[in-house]
Design brief:
By secondary structure, the protein is mainly α. It is built from four helices and no strands. Helix 2 (11-34) runs antiparallel to helix 3. The mean pLDDT is 85.
């Protein structure tokens, strides 16, 4: 699935595909340990799809402003002024 197609999906659809792909990757890893894979490239494809989905999810979070910044300048400045204690 291409990144452009992923961007057109809803958040719920993305999460569903992510869950399915993670499950598939786990199954492939187990199968790879037990026997030879018919298509070893499936491992790489699954990992790349997971990365694409997570990237699109993060883009959507940033676009909607739903994620609080983890490195808030005020809290960092306050921590420095207090000697690392809040």
């Amino acid at each position: 699935m291409k990144t452009k197609e992923l961007r057109d999906l809803t958040d719920d659809d993305l999460q569903q595909i992510l869950d399915d792909t993670c499950r598939r990757l786990f199954e492939l890893r187990v199968q790879a340990q037990a026997e030879r894979l018919d298509a070893p490239s499936e491992l790489l494809r699954s990992r790349k799809l997971i990365a694409r989905i997570k990237t699109v999810q993060r883009e959507k979070e940033l676009a909607h402003g739903t994620v609080a910044e983890t490195n808030d300048d005020e809290s960092v400045a306050t921590a420095v002024e207090n000697g690392g204690q809040e």
